[in-house]
Structures are given as C-alpha cells and as structure tokens.
Amino acid sequence: EFERRVVLRLLSEGLLKQSGGYLRPTRRGIAFLRERDNIRGVGEQVRIVTDTGKVIGYRELPQAIKELFPGAVYLHAGRTYLSVKLEGKRAVVKLVPAKTPPVVTSPLYYTMPSEEEVHNERRVYGIPVRYVTLTVQDVVYGYVVKSFPEGQVISQRLLEGELSYSFRTKGILIEFPPRVEWTELQNAEAFHAVEHALIYAAQMIVGASPTDLGGVSFPSGHIFIYDAFPGGSGVSARLFAELEKAIARAFDITSRCTCEDGCPRCIFSPYCGNNNKILSRRRAAELLGDVLALRLAATRTERFGKPIV
Ligand SMILES: [Zn+2]
Ligand SMILES: [Zn+2]
C-alpha cells in the first residue's frame, strides 16, 4: 500500500510514467535522481573536470569508463576534449585546439557476466533461455583512434591500467549449442554476430533504444543480453517474452544483407567492444536458420572461452 501511494504520487508529479505495462522514470524523473547523490542502482557518476579545475559535467557509470578513459576524445557542449586521467569518480580532460584534425575514439572492452538468480526459464525454438539477475563487470583495456567522419582506424592502443566497473542488472541468458564442425574462433564469430543481431532486432521488436541493452557472447554458445542501466530497466524482460520474434528478425537481418560477411547495415555496431572484429554474418545466418528450423539439439552446456562484446 505504501509503495502504491508512492508510485501514484510519482506518476502524478510526472517523475514516473507507465509504458507497456512497466513503470519507467520520465526525463524529468531521471534528472531529479541525477541531482541526488548516493541513490544506488540509478547510476553512479563521474565528475568531469578540466585541467584548469572547472567542472564541465557528469557522466554515469558504466558509460563513463567507456567514454572517458585516458586518451579518449570526449565531445561536450560543442567542444572537443581529450581525457588525460580517470581516477575513481573524477575524470580530468584537456581542451583540444580547434585546428586539430578531427578524430574519434572507441573503447576496446569486454564484459564478464555472472548470473545470480533465475526468475524465469523457458525454451525458445527448443533452446534453453533464462531471465536472470546478474552482475556485469565491464573492463576497458584499450581503444582505437579513428578519423572523423570517415571512420578509418588510425591507431590501436592499450591502456596502461585496465578500468573496470561492476553493477547488478537483469537480463536473459540464451544457451545455443556450439557447432562441433566449427573451430572455437568460428563459433565465436557466429555467436558474437548473433548477439549484435539480437540487440538490433530488439530495437524493432520491443522498441529498445540502441543503448538500452548490452550483450556479451561466448564461443560456447552462451549469449547474455541485459539491461544496460544498473538496476535494470525492464527492456530485457520484454525481450524474454518476445524472443521468438526477435530471433526470426535476427535471422532476417543476417540472411538478407548482400555484404561480404558483415557491414554497418547488418551486424556492425558502434557500441561493439571489439571494433566489430570476430564477427561473421554468414555463420550467424546459418546458425539462426538451423534454430528456426528446430534443427539444433537443446542441451545445456558448460560456458567456455573468452567473452566478446
Ligand atoms: Zn551487411
Ligand atoms: Zn561486438
């Protein structure tokens, strides 16, 4: 009863809204929470300070470690900054002179998921799928520098020290069987591409925004797709319910493109932690075709291999 009254009050004040049977904070609600420190699960923030000591803004974690690692080019209020340091919850940036040729940076990172509690479980085309609470650890270990706007890779660098951030959220775990006739690398290429395609499909099937969901795949066929915001947002719960449609759409995305083996129109993602490498559109299409034809044996397997985001 107390919770119900609180929710009604937040709805009437326009801080919460109802959408698709879920309660979500409104833009105003999110701004309200951001003004307040120490509300767990809503996103801890990094303070962005210039080398002359001026605070120019804040960025939530985990996004902050992907955008403000030392060496990152950070765009803010129409200006270009270079991050020189990220320590704890403070990033120090330096203004880049306007005449410098424009470049952008993308982080190289991986994600280590660990499932904690199973809330729901079902089979999708015979494949075991669970809806779980999980802890996600994002680890940024390097970055690529690209020309802008062409996107040509100029250089690839490793960070002196890895940056990591862990948070709890909710998500789904799909356990596809790996292909015995494929090598571990070929399986990694297929499942990484399936993961990208499912996140893309979710934008159309459940109306997710490009940054609502995170994903990580293993060459063993394990794919996690989770709410990217600490605490969870309910988007992966909707995907869990609509997964048949999302898999069918992911098959369309991977089978209909006419590119060689992956391109920005099908499976490339600007949020990939691996610079869109180890990614095969053709293998993903072959695998998803077999899933839809109910040709894959559904046995739960042990997770192995390196996580690819
Ligand atoms: Zn393509
Ligand atoms: Zn990726």
UniProtKB/TrEMBL annotation:
Residues 194-267 form the MrfA-like Zn-binding domain. One of its GO terms (molecular function) is 3'-5' DNA helicase activity. Keywords: ATP-binding, Helicase, Hydrolase, Nucleotide-binding. GO terms for biological process: interstrand cross-link repair; nucleotide-excision repair. The keyword Transmembrane helix does not apply. It holds the Pfam family MZB. This is DEAD/DEAH box helicase. It comes from Thermofilum pendens.
